[in-house]
Amino acid sequence: MNRVATIAIVSAFSSLALAGASRAESFGMNSPSGIEQTLRNFRGNDFNVEHFYNWRDAGSEAYGPRSAPPRSAQDVRQIQASIGANRMLTRKLANDGVNVRNVINAEKAADGSITFYID
Fold it and tell me: For residues 32 and 107, what is the distance between their CA atoms, to the nearest angstrom?
């Protein structure tokens, strides 16, 4: 009986450890380094472009949807550089009328699509 209980406990802890690892990875996909890597390697067509609304400064007179938290100036430059390094993505954005210099944020969704926020 003791052996069965030990195996059950070890199995439970193993499952929790694996679940925690996959969840932690999803939190990092929109970190500055995570989104930069995604943008450099992105080959899909599944993206959309939205205007950025600063949710921290949204007062009672603010209009429009609330969007992603703002990034630092250095993070914005790195996102733009990552997009610029991906010629295919740069071309696709240009075809949609988006200048890379106007992109101030990007977020990857769980389904693999990317939302670009422009100023």
Answer: 10
Q: Coil, helix or strand for 80?
A: helix
Do the Cβ atoms of 48 and 115 come closer than 8 Å? yes
Residue 35 near residue 106, CB atoms below 8 Å? yes
Across the chain, mean pLDDT equals 77
Q: Which residue has the tokens 């802890």?
A: 13
Residues 6+ apart with CB under 8 A from 39: 79, 82, 83, 85, 86, 89, 106, 114
Does the pLDDT at position 5 exceed 80?
Answer: no
Angle between helices 73-85 and 87-95 (to 10 degrees): 100
Please compute Rg for the chain using Cα positions: 20
Cα distance between residue 59 and residue 22, in whole Å: 36
Distance CA 22, CA 37 (A): 18
Q: Residue 8 carries which side chain, given as an amino acid letter?
A: A
Question: What is the pTM (predicted TM-score) of this model?
Answer: 0.67
The tokens describing 74, both together, are 């250095």
